Every structure is written in structure tokens, then in C-alpha cells.
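Task card 7
Instruction: Convert sequence to C-alpha cells.
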Amino acid sequence: MNAPPPPARFQRAPAPVRASAADGPVRLNKRMADLGLCSRREADAWIEQGWVQVNGQVAEMGVKVLPADRITVSRQAQGQQAQQVTILLHKPVGYVSGQAEDGHQPAATLVQARTHWAGDASRTRFSPQHLRGLAPAGRLDIDSVGLLVLTQDGRVARQLIGEDAATEKEYLVRVQYGDTAQNVQTAFPPAQLARLRHGLSLDGQPLKPAQVDWQNPEQLRFVLTEGKKRQIRRMCEQVGLKVVGLKRIRIGRVVLGNLPAGQWRYLGPGERF
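Output:
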């Protein structure tokens, strides 16, 4: 006999792509995050509000579920989530990605009405509530510039910095090789370029393969699918290169484009990482 449909004010969560019979119970907040519904923290908030049901019953905090269990989410939760924003900022030198440190301001302080890019095509109007819970989804060190993502949406954060995140991030990196600051490409050994692409380790762990090519004689183009702290600078150090400029120009399918330094725009309704 088929299970009755969920109440009108609840919507059924998508089923996992694949569920093994051997899968054991997991906490509800983890299951919801795995399904791409929200972050674990957001799931906990929804459960506390009574906005989540398991098999037709309002879920309690800490409950565990099986792959076959039917999870439904209140339309109130969906409406709240629909109001969350993701902001794309062109971070300049001198700002840190997260909390203030050593007297340097966090990049989020640049998100103001006066720095909202006039070329923003999203048509979203700035509101102070868009600053609540706004957090960086990834890092960009103080000496680096370019695309930084700030979001209220746990789904975006999970996609970009979650345990299984594999979104491409593209950088332009100006380098020197010893005393060579011009035509570095000619002086730099091809074998060392091959090591940058695959063969280096950081913090005792081998790095994933990277795309590394010369953009011009003094600048390399990196495409990474991971984001260890100061990764590109530390990779370059291992092969004798000094980074003198680093700019992130793309995350997934979203590009920095013509966004001016120190300004920001909203992620548009049709844009996806």
C-alpha cells in the first residue's frame, strides 16, 4: 500500500541517488545536508522550529534516520531559505576572508550599499538583513585579490567548502624564479612545472592533480579543486617560485568578470557554481 502524500504545507525531500541496504542510521541533520536541502546547522534550526517531519511525524532534535525514511520539510523553511543571499565580492589586498585579525578588517565589511556594483544584473535590492549570518565560503589570504563568495545559504557553503567539495577554482599567479622577474617561463624547468601539476604534498598529504599552465612569460594559471591554507604560495615555494601577485578569477561556473575591486554583486537567480 502506498504511503499517503505529505501534508500540503510540507514538501518531500528528494531521495538519495543511491542508498545501500547496508547503510545504517545517521543523524537527521546529516541526512538533510547529504540530500542538499541545507547545512547541518540550518537543519538543526528547522528541526527546532518543528519544520521537519520524518515519516509524517514532527522530528525531534538528534533523531537518526535510515535511507528509506521519508523526510518532509515545511514550506516555511523553504520560504526562509529562498530569502537567503549569496554575494560575490572582488576582495582587494589588505582584507582577511574571515574574522578580523592583526588589525586587518574582514572582507565582509566591504558589503555596503555604496559598494554595491552598479553593473549587478540580479535586480536584488540591498537590505541590511542580507548581512545577517553572512559568512565566507572559502578563503583568500590577505595578500591575494579576486573573487570571494559570502553566503547565508548553507547549501552554497557545503558545495564550495564541504568535505566532498570539488568545485574548480581558477587563479592567475604572477611569479619570480630566483632573481628572474621577466621571462620566467624560459628560466623555469619544465620538470618543476610537472611537479606543480601533480607530485607535491602539503601538511603530510599529497595534493590532488592541478591544472597549471603559463598564461604569459611571468604569469601562471592554476585550476584547483581543493583549498588548503595558502596552497598556491606554498606549492610555488616548493619548486623555487616566489608569488608576487595572486588573483582568483573563477569559482565553478561563476567568473569575476568586470566586477571592480572593493565592490560586490549578488549571485543571480540563474547562476550556479
